[in-house]
Amino acid sequence: MKVAIIGAGMVGSAAGFALILKGIAKELVLVDIDEARARAEAEDIAHAVPFSAPAVVRHGGYAEIAGSGVVILACGVSQKPGETRLALLERNAEVFRAVVGEVMAVCPDAVLLIASNPVDIMGQITARMSGLPPGRVIGSGTILDTARFRWLLGRHLGISSNSVHAYVLGEHGDSEVLAWSNARAGSVPLTGFAAQIGSALTADVRARIDKGVRNAAYTIIEGKGATWYGIGGGLARIVGAIAGDEQAVLSVSTVEPEVLGVPDVALSLPRLVGRGGVSATLWPDLDADETEKLRASAATLKGFVDQLDL
Q1: Residue 23 phi, psi dihedral angles, 5° rounding
Q2: Which of 15, 204, 289, 302 could make an S-S bridge to 232, C-beta 3.0–4.6 Å?
Q3: Active-site position among 47, 59, 156, 172
Q4: What is the pLDDT of residues 213-245, one digit of tens each?
Q5: Nearest CA among 269, 270, 271, 267 for reference residue 300
């Protein structure tokens, strides 16, 4: 599959590197307003091709992304000191207005994959600007938060994180919801599994894991300035599901007509991802507390979207 990445910063380049190492992209094009950066990142990634699968990696302008099956939008502006979240959103909306127009002119049939933060809101903005069906505009959403949740659970239980089936739902941000009530290790409910192996999920353990998931980005940012490898891997996983028409269950963000009484809002739920993007939403069984937290998360996101002048 041909994949284009708009924005050759650390997130975009990490995603491109992961796509090449995993052999997902057969052709990769990096586009950036800083052409020298795009050229350098493309050449650096291309030097990894001999260690993976055959692929063409290059930089270019929008004309060169024609024919891409997926276009990753990893572009946008950084928050200024003292700038409100709403002001940042409005500036990023202006950037996306120009970028989405250019992308749609040459890739009208592509799936758009949004990586720019705040990802749920930027995904909803992109859906409106592009006019595409909701399933073809996918935000990376909580795919990274879900990975962090599974990794921490696996470490506590002493098992592979691949054997942990648990999801983070709602906003990719402070109001996200860790769905403890339906989490499983293999086919066994998490609490029962933990009891069987003598690694009980006490209130302290749950609090520590919850904090680890929610604060992971802050911890990484404090140490190195930004996060990029984890989300780069997550973006590659989503593209892989699209390229392989897997119908994989992934916690990604798309616009829903209604979520627990909150209309027209983008957030993460377990969704089937395949060739055309998201084909279905799977509504999880949650306990009463998680349900209320998910409703509150949807309301938080809706409140920000309604303030934007689009």
Answers
A1: 70, 25
A2: 15
A3: 172
A4: 999 988 898 899 888 999 999 999 999 999 999
A5: 267
